[in-house]
Please model this.
Amino acid sequence: MPHIVFIATHFVGNTNRYVKAFTELDGITFSVISSDPSSSIPPSMRPKIAAHYRIENCLDSVQLIEATRAIASSIGRVDRLVGFLEELQVPMAEVRDALGIEGLTTEIARRFRDKDRMKEVLRAANVPVAQSALATTTAELQAFVAKIGYPVIVKPRAGLGTRATYRVTNAEDLAAIPAPTSAVPLQVEEFVRAREHTCETVTVRGVPVWRSGTRYFPSPLEVLETPWIQYAVLLPREDDDPTWKNFHPTNDAALTALFGDQAGTAAGTALTHMEWFLREDGTQLVNEVGVRPPGVHIMPMMGLTHDTDMFADWARLMSFDQFTPKPRTSAAGACFFRGPGSAEHIVSVKGIEVAIELCGDTLFHMKTPKVGDRRATGYEGEGFAIVKHATTEGVKHALRTLIENVQIRYG
Ligand SMILES: Nc1ncnc2c1ncn2[C@@H]1O[C@H](COP(=O)(O)OP(=O)(O)OP(=O)(O)O)[C@@H](O)[C@H]1O
Ligand SMILES: [Mg+2]
Model:
């Protein structure tokens, strides 16, 4: 039986869905490393966990190595090390390299984590990407702007959640952002005007076996630039829609380049989350790729639209290099509730009952924002809804209904 070790950080929300999926998977020995004590593990999952090891910081590969060694000496050889968080991918790869565990190596993990390295690898493989540079000084930043002109986008080299990501349209904007240094360089890119899509791909030892895709309304950057905008993600019913299908060769070329000569190994077994731009003229650009399951509720949406449990499917994929592709049978969407204004707390939430009534059976799940909740800083807002319908139009209609009816006020 393969011995799978999962890095859980904290036993909250999403993490528990992944942990549960592994505890329900037959034919594996399952252990967990976390920062939370074992008393935080949900009781129903405890009997299936062979070993638990607590460390202070799950992002520290030295502590992870110690924990993995300890688990190996008490339970037996570790075959796979898995975790779904973006920030975990490089530390986990360092542990694999240090202990000789099959899977993503540090070199490959860095290609996914470091936006500059990723773009270099893609460019070398003729995969279309935005013009970009890694600036370690203000002079380098200015030189890039002088070359390609405003606007540009400036973001962290290893970003997450569109944090510290700026659209820079003039010299004044440029002067306002923290200057890059060699310790904290900045990724600077040509500003791409385009629709934003995703492509989720299951690869088994480098071979793509299944794809799904979504569209963001509007782009995560526009959401954060405009406080009242409610963000939505749409997964259409048509799995042969040319918009997404035409991207598959680019997706294939990008993943082949990123996995490189490791593609044929367990390193090439993954569910990847690729964000890409589609411009008016039909040209595509790859923005970034996560070598991990997608966020923004795309996991449950993929499950709903393909009559499966994607968390369970991912657990099986990462444990056995196995995946059974399922056909798409419906459309799904998610929207995130946010309100205008910048005050700290929610003082009123209106329209929930009306929205629920109007959506009817289309509404699958809703987390309602609550009066008194602290205003969220990210594009995911203070609440969300997930919808499912037999048609793409049905999902669009439901998302519109939710966004128009649910009104949050801060004060
Ligand atoms: N070159 C670009 N041109 C236009 N918009 C961009 C560009 N790069 C990034 N953006 C915008 O900023 C958002 C965040 O950028 P990116 O996806 O690279 O970083 P991230 O913080 O890792 O993202 P995520 O929010 O997916 O975790 C993108 O979704 C897009 O809206
Ligand atoms: Mg992104």
Remarks:
- The CA atoms of residues 172 and 246 lie 39 Å apart.
- Residues 3-102 form a domain with the Rossmann fold fold (CATH 3.40.50.20).
